[in-house]
């Protein structure tokens, strides 16, 4: 049995003993105010730091700092090129410290270091370059059809953004929110997940090693119902961007609705991965495994319902099961590891709870289905696959958010599409087929925001990403983020004098 150990004295980078908020350009002191919550390493179950929770008063300070920076500070008033210059500095400082940030992320979130260092980290840094470039290329509109007027449409920053992020890809997702918010001249307050505060505290600190004015990027740490709710409800916040679970998304949207604040919600998924008989089945198999097991299975865009054409189902599923057994589960810092631990204990219990639910509902367990017994500690779950009785079962209708695949079979592509659409979610869909009309039919008829044909998990930042139905409201993309984080203003000017009624003459 393996014992993965954590030894603070041997840590590759310093780990803060207490993680606090960062407000108006300064780290908040680690005093005795507020709750102290443990920040846990999910691979060892050690408490590696404590989070000092920001209460309502501290959230108020953070929003006021962001408000001041927006209402009076230089950031919204400086030229786009100047903002771009500072965002390039941010990219650089984050890139220089990628090893440290990726290490902290892996330690606290359990995502493999291969993934945090090789993928989430570079994406984090790139977010700043990308959105600075988007802002610098943005143009307004002009209308001249109504003579003699010229109407020009310009876009202005919307104000203070409340940015609330999850624990499954903290640095990649939260920096996308920060970058897309500030690029257009806004200021923000970020609240990362209380389970994974370590990496983002360091990211925000590093952002302040650049010429960024104080108060533009603020950070509060704490639980959703305390710190998060205080942030969303704060009258100084103009707009709310949230990534997380659908239940929380509903609560946040109704809270924000009371203040008439626009919300963007990127929520859960239960996406269909349709494997047709005309697919390159080796590639489809590789893609199906990555689609459900990568990022430890904790991703909204997972292909978690694998729909296989009955003609090829036995062979395909047999191979999938054999490959699942061979996946290297282990220490997320070890470069050989493919699947690391789940992010926190309650989440692991919830994921394992779906094995019992599956058994009760008459689904057939194919592989996995229990906590991995190769480790003394850590929230490791075996890569799991279940043959579902039908699409009505809970394992097919609820987002499990772990290394847990549900298989279904179908007889023709119309049936596959119907099964894909019989879901409250609509985030993404996958189809594996070398027959173009079949792939196009799936693309056109599956009700989801993104369809991947013969590829797993390809994010194109320029193109809209977001969900239909309970998977969310709004989209992330260059243009969508600009629309969301700016207000449109129309200015109308007559180009020549025109007759006007002379009242009261
Ligand atoms: O997430 P929450 P949870 C799904 C996944 C998972 C389920 C529950 O299915 O099993 O959600 O996960 C903050 N006001 N996803 O409960 O609650 C919270 O502090 C303001 C999908 O851990 O959505 C954290 O920062 N904020 C997903 C963030 O919301 C509140 C990623 C996300 O936590 C709040 C994560 C409140 N009232 C989970 N309540 C995806 N789309 O990728 C909570 N928060």
Taking all Cα atoms into account, the compactness measure Rg is 24 Å
Structural class: alpha/beta
Strand proportion, as a percent range, falls in 15-25%
Low-pLDDT segments: none
Strand order of the largest sheet: 15-16-17-14-13-19-20
Q: Helicity range of the residues?
A: 25-40%
Largest sheet: 7 strands, mixed
Task: Give the distance, in angstroms, between the N- and C-terminal Cα atoms.
Answer: 96 Å
Mean pLDDT: 97
Briefly, what is this?
The chain has 505 residues and is of the alpha/beta class. It is built from 15 helices and 23 strands.
Description:
The chain has about 500 residues and is of the alpha/beta class. About 40% of the residues lie in helices and about 20% in strands. The chain has 15 helices and 23 strands. The strands form six sheets. Strands 15-16-17-14-13-19-20 form a seven-stranded mixed beta sheet, sandwiched between helices. Strands 10-9-8-11-12-22 form a six-stranded mixed beta sheet, sandwiched between helices. Strand 4 and strand 5 form a beta hairpin. Helix 2 runs antiparallel to helix 4. The protein is globular and about 85 Å long. The site of ligand TXE has 25 residues, from helix 7 and helix 8.
